[in-house]
Amino acid sequence: RTTMKSLRFISAEAFVSNAELARKSLGAVAHDLFPLLFKASYLLEQVEVIHDLVENWPLFDFNMGKLLGATVDYQEDLSHRTCSVCLESCLTGLRDYVLNQSAPHMKKLRVVDLTGIKDVEVQFCKCKKTMGRWARTQLLSKLCSELLVYLQQAQCNPGTFEISINVLIDLFVTERNYELVVQALLKKCSCPLKICCVAFRSDNLTLQKFFYIIKLTDPSLLRKLEIVHNVHLEMEHLEMLFNSIHFPLLMSLTLPARTFNVRRFTAADEQMLANIGEKMGEMTQLSELSMSFSILTGRIQKLLSPLKTPLKMLDVSNCSLNHADMAFLANSFHANHLEALDLSGHDIPELYPSTFFKLLRHCSSVLRSLTLEDCNIQDTHVNMLILGLSPCQKLQEFKFIGNPLSSQALKHLFTFLCELPMLKNVEFPVPRDCYPIGITYPIDDASLCKFDHQKYERVAEELNLILLQANREDVKASTPLFGSYDAAVQETNNELGAYLIKSFKETLEKFTASFNKMS
After folding, report:
1. What's the N-to-C CA distance of the chain in angstroms?
2. What is any one of the record's Gene Ontology cellular component terms (predicted)?
3. Mean predicted confidence (pLDDT) in 407-416
4. Which of 184, 244, 328, 499 gives 301 a disulfide partner, CB atoms 3.0 to 4.6 angstroms apart?
């Protein structure tokens, strides 16, 4: 697919393609052409020109999402190109903007917004090297620290210290880049480049370090908080967090697995849960909540009823919800606003079929993403599922991996899915008839790949043919056996793996020591 370019954009490409000439001529370029030249340079990966454009940026703000997004001159959205060489040139150009010897009063830049960059699985840039969220956090923190050291050592123009640029960024902190980010945040006041954390994700971090760094980020600005892998946050720590820190602008909250476990609740725990609900109720902007792999049986109402803003996204996958929980969700004011819903890991047809379909009916006019993985949806349930999904005309994504459906049932379902006009992405299970007879669901990891791969390929081709014959080439259908692509996990999987091995080793050592004592 070719995107049309305006004559202005073609001229901009021609101008920046000769890097040496372009760099010499920047002083004579009209200020309002800088955004056009920046996008053209980014598309062509002209890293030296990118650097010099940023170093001499003449405008008040520099918004990556807007600069690389669809424009009148070139409709193609480049904000998902996290090209390593281009992004490094942007950030070093920003550092050199501060150090540039031009008169301080000429420097108008006040806000740099890096939050519009989108991390995706497939990269189209020529270098094929990406700079993910973790690496962007690392590089910006490093440049801020180096800039401060340089300014303190060198004889700089006194006006340089008056430069103050807010750099909006989504920080991603793990054990490996923690010290560097802490140093940059601690010195924020004296550094011309001021890190403003809009979204914060932490993985592989001790609670002590997490509590320390979250206070440094200025939580009053935070819109998204993700506490994900290997941060051992339990309910009492969450209550402590909400009691000690206010998040007035928080819109999205992701909690780690096993934050809640109602099976071992005491009366004090019930009160603690109610307190957490009340604190979340004070977050008047909160509209996205993810609490997967917690045990919340019978407590959804206590946790969600204090919320004053309707949720647009709710992930309660593998949370052991009962009928009362589902009834609360179906009848709550959230139901009419849910754009993304994940109920994976619940036996929906067995436990609460009618209540689930009531929930689906209430959110059908706005629902964009539905995930029902490992929900024991069988061939006999497909007609009912089609009936439930029929009103969901805005559905863009449907994931139902891990359900015991036959090839025939999948074909029937795909024929219906072609009728959903907005649908773009479908994740479907390996058909049950591709596995050996007698396979039990949910399938354990050891058996997951033990299916007839040739038969699966044939079925997948037939399913894609159904899409093709209905002129739905725009729908991507796949079977990611080990879960959907996660840019953050992909970027830090080595650190994550090392952490898991270390945890396993420590557990094994404790077990051996206990066993030896018993012996």
Report:
1. 70
2. cytoplasm
3. 98
4. 328
